[in-house]
Amino acid sequence: MSDDDKNAGKRRSQAWFGGTDKDAFLHRSWAKNNGLPDDAFDGRPVIGICNTFSELTPCNAHFRELVEHIKRGVIEAGGTPFEFPVFSCGETMLRPTAMLFRNLASMDVEEAIRGNPLDGVILMGGCDKTTPSLLMGAASCDIPAAVVSGGPMLNGRFRGRTLGSGTDVWKFSEEVRSGRMSEEDFMAAESGMSRSPGHCMTMGTASTMASMSEALGVTLAGNAAYPAVDARRNRLARLTGRRIVSMVEEDLRLSRVLTREAFENAIRVNGAIGGSTNAVIHLLAIAGRIGVDLDLTDWDRFGRDVPCLVNLMPSGEYLMEDFCYAGGLPAVMGKIRDLLHEDAFTISGRTMGEQLNAA
Ligand code: FES
Fold first, then answer.
1. Which of 4, 70, 196, 301 lies most in the core, judged by the most C-beta atoms within 10 Å?
2. pTM of the predicted model, to two decimals?
């Protein structure tokens, strides 16, 4: 019997780690230099953790700590975790623009998943383009996958004022130009704006895509709004690590979650949160990768009658930390429940409606 025959019906990872031939020796032996014992290869789910950590992507620079919580969850549930890096598109430094590299990053994600012995994958996204690039790449592979977002920064603070990432940079810059703000104050405000780990805490693209991931059902409930430094973010990471192992056992692939109904839900939620228009570009790309027919007219059709319920900068007043304390995305989705497909399935193993009941 060939190795292919012997591995038929087994987990994907067993095509690398199963058996007693030369190739299995190679795959296991080299992996053992990570300190892995024999039972790491005994057929248990092998979970990739796709990490967009980079110090050049400050929004994701805390991921080395966050990933440890995911790994603990995977191990607790009986899986074997393998963390791996992919190209990280950071908004603040990458020139000429991170948008040019989103598709390149998605190819990196796709080939890293496809070419390695992974049964399921956790996608660690934060800064704007990292979340869509991860979801696009994973959607093309269609294996069990879940998103863990890095979470927003705490509210910025400067001399009694609340500062929003980006939003107040433009204001302050104009105030300096008009002589209403000194350069010393401008420099001091710089340190108050980004005062904790995490991504932009306005409802910019990062917060929007974290919200879209939750609305699509590819995260556990509460993912979008917990600040990066909130212990509930680490707890959610750990629970997602546990959950991905069960998802592999249930063969719960992305295509079961990323359905037409899920995208319609996300479009409606984007209207309710006043999300970034970049979500249009990213959701269309993700839909294309998973084979869901979605186009611009759907944004008009499903977004048209949705009331904007969330008052966050850049167009509104508050920030993601406030949004978290107000109940986060489950609270918003609960308010527009009659507009949502409650039977859309989520990575939690429950429908969106059941998830909202429990929120
Ligand atoms: Fe990274 Fe805004 S610069 S989320």
1. 70
2. 0.96
